[in-house]
Amino acid sequence: MTPISVCIIAKNEEAHIERLLSSLSSCPFEIVLVDTGSSDRTKEIAAKYTDCIYDFPWIDDFAAARNFSLSKASNDWILMMDSDEWVKSIDLEELDYFRKHLSHAVGSVTRENLTGDPGHPSLSTDQTERFFSRKRFQYTGIIHEQLTPKFEKSFEAFLLNTTIGHDGYLMTGQERIAKSLRNITLLKKQLEQKPDDPYTLYQLGKGYEMIRDAANACLCFEKALRTGLDSELAYVQALILSYGEALLETGQFKKALSLDNYANSLSGSADYLYLMGMICLKNEQYEQALDQFEKAVALPNALKEGRNSYLCYYEIGRILSMISEWGMARNYFLKCGDYPPALHALRILDEQGL
């Protein structure tokens, strides 16, 4: 068996836990499951895959539960997973090399997120730090807990050739609101200990975003950015994108133009370029908007679907329609495939004989 332990915390996850554990069944890892108070068949299902099942009374502290799982692992190298995730692809040789030669660092995995309503899911991707040595790292924070070095102030993270799926936010509107309100309560509790912690402010803003309270989301994101964050950090870049979207949502179009200050750090992000295109569009800066959208479609990847393809093509088509460039506008709408707004725009052009 490879000296790697997969650590999982779970509560009432009978609908998901087997998907995760079966996706790990071909990997020669120890599996450690910490149950925080299930009343369903979570532990019964997990017992088909591992004998390492432990109880941990829930104390409103995710870091405490995760650190308890680390303490129960037989191996120092940990792959942390959540019950609403599953392994899509994994490079075992790479993990072994990382373990032997990069003990000071953390391995990040690519996570493909299905979110929104179950009937109409949307796809986004991010990178999350999951592979590490428990000798050097632990978790801090009662919610949206962070991997934290025990000795150094900072650490290196490298992206692994491992991809996981995640659908923890694929839920009905009522379920999403309930989960977000729980998170907001815990995050406010965490802020009482560190009122100006930018990461907690970011996550609180995301909580407000989930319940469509863009005004409070803006306040949290803005306060976090005022702490002077390094815009090269992945979560800070995500914060900037969320802040821009919240500014647009609340009609603060002029203020949103200030996000151009992050162009140097985010010039390779299709999501940022699309956002800046939308900001320019709202400020009637059409040439600048076209420039941003065209730059976005030249990039190979985007965190959210469409931001380097059909969403940009649609906006370019709309701008061209404003200046009566009907033929060029049609070509861009056609590039959008089956995107409904683009199909509607094409029907209008057909009806008007343009």
Task: Write up this protein.
The chain has 354 residues and is α/β, with parallel strands linked by helices. It has three domains: 4-171, Spore Coat Polysaccharide Biosynthesis Protein SpsA, Chain A (Alpha-Beta Complex); 174-300, Tetratricopeptide repeat domain (Serine Threonine Protein Phosphatase 5, Tetratricopeptide repeat, Alpha Horseshoe); 309-354, no CATH class. Helix content is 46%, strand content 21%. The strands form two sheets. An eight-stranded mixed sheet has the order 3-2-1-4-7-6-10-5. A two-stranded antiparallel ribbon has the order 8-9. The chain is globular and about 70 Å long.
Write the layout of secondary structure elements.
Layout: E1 4-10, H1 17-23, E2 30-35, H2 42-46, E3 52-55, H3 62-72, E4 77-82, E5 85-89, H4 92-101, E6 106-117, E7 120-133, E8 137-140, E9 146-149, E10 157-170, H5 173-193, H6 198-210, H7 214-225, H8 234-249, H9 253-256, H10 263-266, H11 270-282, H12 286-297, H13 310-322, H14 326-335, H15 340-351
Parallel strand pairs: 1-2, 1-4, 2-3, 6-10
Antiparallel strand pairs: 4-7, 5-10, 6-7, 8-9
